[in-house]
Amino acid sequence: MHSTVFIAGWLLGLASLAAAFVSPDSTGRLPAMGWNSWNEYECNINEDVFITVARQLVALGLKDLGYQYVNIDDCWSDKKQRRNTSTNKLIPDAQKFPRGIIHTAELVHSMGLKLGIYSDAGTDTCGGYAGSLGYEEVDAATFSKWGIDYLKYDNCNVPSEWADEYEYTPEGPGSNAPTGYDWGTSNTAKRYRAMGDALQRQNRTIQYSLCAWGHAHVEQWGNTTGHSWRMWGDIMPAWKGKEKWSWGLMPIVNQASLFWESTDFGGHNDWDMLEVGNGDLTLEENRSHFALWCAFKSPLIIGTPLDTMRESILVILSNRELIDFNQDPVYGASAMPYKWGNERPAGTSDMEHPAAFWVGTSIKGIHIFLLNTQDTSVQMRAVFAEIPPLQAAANDEYLVHDMWTGKDLGTFKEYFELEVKTHDTAALRITMVDGKHPNVSWSPK
Ligand SMILES: *[C@@H]1O[C@H](CO)[C@@H](O)[C@H](O)[C@H]1NC(C)=O
Ligand SMILES: *[C@@H]1O[C@H](CO)[C@@H](O)[C@H](O)[C@H]1NC(C)=O
Ligand SMILES: *[C@@H]1O[C@H](CO)[C@@H](O)[C@H](O)[C@H]1NC(C)=O
Ligand SMILES: *[C@@H]1O[C@H](CO)[C@@H](O)[C@H](O)[C@H]1NC(C)=O
Ligand SMILES: *[C@@H]1O[C@H](CO)[C@@H](O)[C@H](O)[C@H]1NC(C)=O
Fold first, then answer.
1. In a mutational test of the pocket of ligand 5, which residue from 442, 443, 445 has the highest number of ligand atoms less than 8 Å from its CB?
2. CA 148, CA 154: separation in Å to the nearest integer?
3. I need a labelling partner for 190 at 20 to 30 A (CA). Which of 116, 153, 228, 318 fits?
């Protein structure tokens, strides 16, 4: 009898140990910050690109702000030879990385930064290079030996025997899975778990970024499998709309309005890499993109070249108050929409006008983010009685602080109102008049 109880307790212990993908050194507890080559360079990469970026991260002060991962995306391996025929190890492209990935890792590490790499949970990467499906163990060991610190694991070229029994894609029409179906048992989850398990068997902490595009409800099993998970198709540097498999900012913000709850310490919805500085976003759109990705606690992975970056872009990416919100050590949840705006009920899905009024919390106070999705400037009003953490004391006087400028805007009763330019996002911190936190016990979830 005693031993049965003991065994049951032991099994339970094992189950809870297996529950979350936790790195002992707390890697992945907070959203990752760094840089990735894809948005700007696609396949035109080589060692110089990454060394230059590493130097710039240091020189521009971005490393000191927390941007530490230098991430190699697709197209780094030898497209023809693929793997060593006797060891099965991936072979780096000798033109692009003449001294091997190991040498790039050494250089990046010597600057106090970390190196990320890319692979795919299929036979081939999206660019047609060797994928890791069936080679998880050897690839995880190779990455570990090279000194890799971060793996972005993509979802292209899945062979038919690995197709999911039930399909779910976030942009699609829903799924035919029975109610209560455990998406953690899907083949997609199994493909991602195989690599996660292999990574955890290595003698090295490798941050694991699941690039699963929201498929098979990755937000339901991502936290047991990796540190972050992509929630939607690829981002593109446009305000709204879609081109092939890439989407503008507003459809992604819409999905974040509906799925903000699946983020917390150690496990983050990834709303994709930053397009700040790319394409033809306006200044206000660049600002909204950064402020919202900080508010959502998404990984902050810069996707623009750093050596030619304009000062106005550096100013956005360097906003310490927004970064501090994203990296808060005490409150792990994403900001939540507290009002949709435009007279729409909570939960309305709208790819052009997603939720506009957001609230989150940090050690410094309550933060609100007011997004203007309209094509003209509008007055936006934060009514204290509508903001959940302030509701019970809505008649108090509050100090409102502008996170963009770092300046206090004054003290206000009942509401605060300001003009928000078209497609801009106001980022405000609210405290008591003496600067104290208005509600330390509140969190969005
Ligand atoms: C394959 O690996 C073996 C054993 O490490 C090595 O001797 C050989 O040179 C490698 N071949 C290629 C093409 O890299
Ligand atoms: C694991 O890594 C540590 C630190 O880098 C090293 O000292 C140790 O020898 C490694 N162990 C194995 C089995 O590779
Ligand atoms: C992920 O797991 C960690 C560790 O168990 C837990 O603290 C955190 O709240 C989880 N995150 C989510 C989003 O469920
Ligand atoms: C915002 O970024 C875009 C690239 O997306 C750039 O063309 C634009 O000039 C930026 N705005 C400012 C003011 O720097
Ligand atoms: C602070 O938040 C808690 C928990 O959500 C809530 O019960 C309480 O009423 C809030 N206090 C104020 C002053 O709004």
1. 442
2. 17
3. 116
Sole residue written with tokens 């928000």: 420
User: To 10 degrees, the CA torsion angle through 21, 26, 30, 34?
Assistant: -100
| Statement: the pTM of the whole predicted model exceeds 0.90 | yes
Alpha-carbon distances of 4 from 1, 11, 429, rounded to whole Å: 5, 10, 54
Ligand 5 site residues (CB inside 6 A) read 389-393, 439, 441-442
User: Which tokens sit at 256?
Assistant: 């974040």
Report the nearest atom of ligand 4 relative to the CA of 285: 1
**Please, what sign has the CA dihedral across residues 159, 42, 212, 35?**
positive
- pLDDT tens, position by position, 276-307: 999 889 999 999 999 999 999 999 999 999 99
Nearest in space to 402 (alpha carbons), one of 314, 274, 287: 287
* Cβ-Cβ contacts under 8 Å for 325 (sequence gap 6 or more): 294, 295, 360, 362, 367, 403
pLDDT digits (tens, 9 = 90+) for 258-273: 999 999 999 999 999 9
Render pLDDT for 96-140 as a digit per residue (tens, 0 to 9). Answer: 999 999 999 999 999 999 999 999 999 999 999 999 999 999 999
Cα 124 to Cα 132: distance, rounded to the nearest angstrom: 8
- Of 247, 244, 252, 198, nearest to 225 by C-alpha is 198
- Gap between the Cα atoms of 324 and 294, Å rounded: 9
Rounded Cα gap, residues 69 and 113, in angstroms: 6
Q: Is the CB of 94 under 6 A from ligand 1?
A: no
Among candidate residues 177, 105, 173, 183, the one with its CA nearest the CA of residue 144: 105
Catalytic residues, by residue number, are: 154, 234
Q: What is the pLDDT of residue 40?
A: 87
Tokens of 33: 């910050």
| Domains parsed from the chain with CATH numbers | 2-326 (3.20.20.70), 336-432 (2.60.40.1180)
Q: Could you say which DSSP state residue 208 is in?
A: E
Ligand 1 contact via 87 beta carbon (within 6 Å) = yes
